[in-house]
Amino acid sequence: MQLPADYPPVLYVPTAAVVARPDDAQLEYRKTKDGRKALLAYSALDRLHAGMGATQPWLVLPTVQLETVWEADKFDTVLLDVEIPPEHRNGPEGVAARAAMGAEGESERDE
């Protein structure tokens, strides 16, 4: 696995749930439009919050450990500092965004 030389020394990686021990964490992956498995990663906590919402569980991963993660759970690419649209986020923010979209769709159908 070859990473760009300018990657930060640590990454903030979204997880499926809050866990007490990092070894218990399930990292959050997304499928790209072309079908590749992508690991989401953020160069700073504020970027993770901006990209995935303030309630998104996460862990700090030293960049040098990406190789170990890849060996355990093969992924095709790393997406750095990507903003996930609110309706595609997990957790309370995603649920609220999807509910709001549903309510908008209902009001449009009523007109």
Which structural category fits the helices and strands?
alpha+beta
Contiguous low-pLDDT stretches (5 residues minimum) are 106-111
Give the overall pLDDT as a whole number. Answer: 88
Main sheet specs: 3 strands, mixed
Considering DSSP H and I runs of 4 or more, what fraction of the residues is helical?
A: 25-40%
Q: How far is the N terminus from the C terminus?
A: 54 Å
Number of helices: 3
Q: How would you characterize this protein structure?
A:
The protein has 111 residues and is an alpha+beta fold. Helix content is 32%, strand content 20%. It has a domain at 10-84. The chain has helices at residues 45-52, 66-72, 91-110, and strands at 10-14, 29-31, 37-41, 58-62, 77-80. Mean pLDDT is 88; it is low at 106-111.
Summary?
The protein has 111 residues and is an alpha+beta fold. It contains three helices and five strands; from the N terminus they run E-E-E-H-E-H-E-H. Strand 2 and strand 3 form a beta hairpin.
Topology:
Layout: E1 10-14, E2 29-31, E3 37-41, H1 45-52, E4 58-62, H2 66-72, E5 77-80, H3 91-110
Parallel strand pairs: 3-5
Antiparallel strand pairs: 1-4, 2-3
Key attributes of the depicted protein:
5 strands, 3-stranded mixed sheet, alpha+beta, disordered C terminus, 111 residues
